[in-house]
Amino acid sequence: MSRPDEMAAAALPQAAVPQPRRARRIPEMLAIWLVLVALLVLAGVLSDAFLRPVYLGNIVRQAAPIGIAAVGVTLVMILGGVDLSIGATISLGAVVCAAVMAGEPANIAPAVVLACLAGAAVGTLNGALIAFTGVSPFILTLGTAITLYGVTQLITGGTAHGIVAPGFREAFNIRIGGVLPVLGLAFVGVAGLGLAVQRLTTFGRRLYLIGSNPATARLAGLPVRRTVLIAYALSGLFGGLGGLALLARSGVSGSLAASGYEFDVLAAVVLGGTTFEGGRGGIGGTVAGVLILFVAFNLVNVVGLPYHAQLVVKGAVIIAASALYRRMREARQA
Amino acid sequence: MMAASVTRRAVAGPPILWVAALLLALAAALLPGFFSPDNLANVARQSAVLALLAIGQTFVVVAGLMDLSVGMLATLVLVLAADLMDGRAEATLAAVGLAVALGAGIGALTGVLNNALRINSLILTLGMLTILQGVTFIYTDQSLGAPSPAITWLANGELFGLPPSFLLVLVATGLAHVALHHTRFGVHLAAVGGAVQSARQAGIAVDHVVLVAFVISGLSAGLAGLLLLGRLGTGYPNAGVGLELDAIVAVVLGGTALAGGRGSVVASVAAAVVLGMVSNMLNLLEVSSFLQMVIKGGVVIVVILIGQIRPEVAR
Questions:
Q1: Quick check: A139 and B252 CB within 8 A?
Q2: B273-306: buried (b, 16+ CB within 10 Å) or exposed (e) per residue?
Q3: Structural domain span for residue A85
Q4: Domain holding A197: CATH number?
Q5: How far apart are the CA of B161 and the nearest CA of chain A, in angstroms?
Q6: Which of A6, B149, B242, B250 has the fewest CB atoms in 10 Å of its CB?
Q7: B227, B52 in Cβ contact below 8 A?
């Protein structure tokens, strides 16, 4: 077996991986979902209302903006990159959408399209610069974030800007079967789409290969630059969609509406088992990571801790989960 | 090849210095007010907080790590010190003690956790950032307290015609420069950042070196918190939001690679001052704060890209 093929075997997602590998990959994915279930059981014990379908549907709805954006960032991080401009991209999506809508229902369609295009454009720019100059994605996307926050503030004049058209928020907040809001369904749908891209496409497989070992991937003749470019473009696109979700959830289109979300998105992705080093993890874990963060937030409120204790819990969960993953991986390699 | 390497030599030095030279030339041509002693002192005062944070961050980055917790650590110190002093002169020493103890203590905790858990420092310190922010907000979610006169003087006053905060930064830069380039610790730190396995095999006490780097970073955050309190005049619990990223930007603009292994404190401080110069000049030009952000982000991207493209040309 040639070296690139070995790499492939080591790094491919379940789809094309031999059976033993698959068996060894499952526990980690399972672990994160078990943590979610344990958290829900705990919530059910502590509060009667928590496990009611309407409440759970609400949590999924709350999680939608960050969750949708986290799907795209997961693709970038599998690749070994990072997108710190995601918070600014979410803000940009929300601001562009509200500004174009200007309160007219007829403008909803162009507003949605333009918000997605704006997000994708930002992602494409990030991707092109990273792919063709090899600049550190951490610092480049940090620069993009600063620039973008400036741009969105220029659009809005620093205050809430644009008017959400009647019907836009209502449509996203209809509860299907009285339980799951459309916005929650959108999150599930986007995650499903991302999962399909990650598992079923050649592009998805290349992400893992490049993330595991970029030099080998290049030597093996993979189109590294194109893959990097597309991954960041998708991250931007999903960021734009996250902006739409934020607008639909809160109705707020302030330029700093999603400021700081980049850290929440990163936390969710890492909780889900995707690492900064790249080559492992995936969107399935990210969805669980997002839900864990939001269930934990709600749990802090339900238990009656001060609101800001959410932050302490979040920080502790991030550190503890990462440490646990590390142990699990080492145990498996030993 | 020859031409390429000559080109490389011609543009040697961190790109930030060329940006600084360009900015100074622009200022000389367009903004005569920029060179007034008062304005230069202002630039120094505005840059001091970021410069202190950049000094501490340089040590962590040279070790191949990152410390995102510094912005919120500075904020926690700021809020607690403001509440402790509440404008009273006699509480100054206690506040300085608090800043040093809390800064070094949290830095040590981060270092110990880094060594014990061995998770990515970015994610560890992101967790620390979040926890520290939670603790700060639980303590207070509105402004409280005030700096003592001495702290206000440190941030805004004058000593021999110079801003005391600037002198503090100079002293800290000198000490840090010596520590990084002329001590065993500095050599070991660079070795750890360059190749941690080799460093361990060479008998370097990696965990100890990393711990000290985080303590230095925490210490600089504690002092930066005091200085920021002096600037603001009140314990504002959102004061340091985003400072950690600004500090990393300054370190990278100074030419220190995020991959670790090498770096310069002097260049990091220079980059922090250049960032202060940029916003000062834009203020003098009455550019809106929104456009300033666009320009600042653009400067970051362009300088990073220049630094990035250079080695490729040389190859």
A1: yes
A2: bbbbbbbbbbeeeeeeebebbbbbbebbbebbbb
A3: 3-333
A4: 1.10.3470
A5: 35
A6: A6
A7: yes
Residue B47 contacts residue B54 (beta carbons within 8 Å): no
B297:A146 CB<8 A = yes
Q: List the structure tokens of B78.
A: 């700021």
- Quick check: A135 contacting B, CB < 8 Å? yes
Closest CB to A149: pick one of B124, B293, B305. B293
Read off the tokens for A82: 């990072």
The per-residue pLDDT for range B230-280, each reduced to its tens digit, is 999 999 998 988 899 999 999 988 888 888 888 899 999 999 999 898 888
- CB of A207 less than 8 A from some CB of B: no
Query: What DSSP string runs through chain B?
Result: -HHHHHHHHHT-S-HHHHHHHHHHHHHHHH-GGGGSHHHHHHHHHHHHHHHHHHHHHHHHHHTT---TTHHHHHHHHHHHHHHHHTT-GGGHHHHHHHHHHHHHHHHHHHHHHHHHH---HHHHHHHHHHHHHHHHHHH-SS-B----HHHHHHHH--BTTB-HHHHHHHHHHHHHHHHHHSSHHHHHHHHHHH-HHHHHHTT--HHHHHHHHHHHHHHHHHHHHHHHHHHHSSB-TTTTTTHHHHHHHHHHHTT--TT-S---HHHHHHHHHHHHHHHHHHHHTT--HHHHHHHHHHHHHHHHHHHHHHHHHH-
What's the total number of domains in chain A?
Answer: 1
Structure tokens belonging to residue A214: 């970029």
Contact residues on chain A for B249, CB-CB shorter than 8 A: 139, 142-143
pLDDT tens for A143-166 read: 999 999 888 888 877 676 777 877
**Interface predicted TM-score (ipTM):** 0.83
